[in-house]
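Here is an idea for our session: we take a single protein and study its fold together. To get us started, please write out a protein record for me. Start from the sequence, derive the backbone structure tokens from it, and show both lines together. Go ahead whenever you are ready, and we will take it from there:
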Amino acid sequence: MGLFKKDKFSHGASAVVTGAGSGIGRAFALEIAARGGQVVCSDINLDSAQETVDMIKATGAKAFAVACDVSSADQVQKLAESAAELLGAPVDLLINNAGIGIGGRFSETSLEDWKWAMGINLWGVIHGCHAFVPAMKASGRGAIINVASAAAFTSAPEMSTYNVTKSGVLTLTETLSGELKKDGIRLSALCPTLVPTNIIKSGKLPGKYQKLADHMLTNYSFVTAKSVAALTLDRLDRGKLYTMPQPDAKLLWLIKRTLPATYTKLFGLSYRFVGGAR
């Protein structure tokens, strides 16, 4: 167990990052390269992935761009197979980062939007773990960071679809952490609140949410994608299961776990008087 905790998975890694074309995914790819690793940068937008690769290559590190829609199990399986060939080594670090933002009242969210969000945010992570874990088990070593969200436990009203997908990611990470430890595979979940990325613009959020998020990011965001990626990798190396980079995420996590009924009641009351009556 001691050796397991001291293993520096983030240094000299042969890594795959999904959603690497921008935001936290790009930050992860750049940080892994800065730590002496080589990276397969995957994104549904190949041009964006190539931009990240070009940035990495400019530093003298090794990187490859691969187009992949994580909602497709076949595409993720092909990503796993091609990544090992491109890197010339077993993939020992997987960052399941690809995701989209979606909000709105439950009664106004279509089943098509539910399926779209579940396919990327939750099934994308399931596909990633399913495709990459067998080779990690065979080599007896590996690490997976799943990008969840503070939404996984805050359960804010009018965010049901996003909340459900991210809580699934968190639960999967916790489950696999125990299940795969004997195989030398480490799991970690990233649960941030707002981080300056493109997820708000590229997702399906009502105008009021976009304006609120823009305001919060402009005035109250004290982290960057780069700092979040670096912190998460550092905590992975220290064997930490959770990373909550902002104080508000840590506070809400504490309240929800220690006073769950009170938390839910207060959230419901605040929504009733602030956002629900319209």
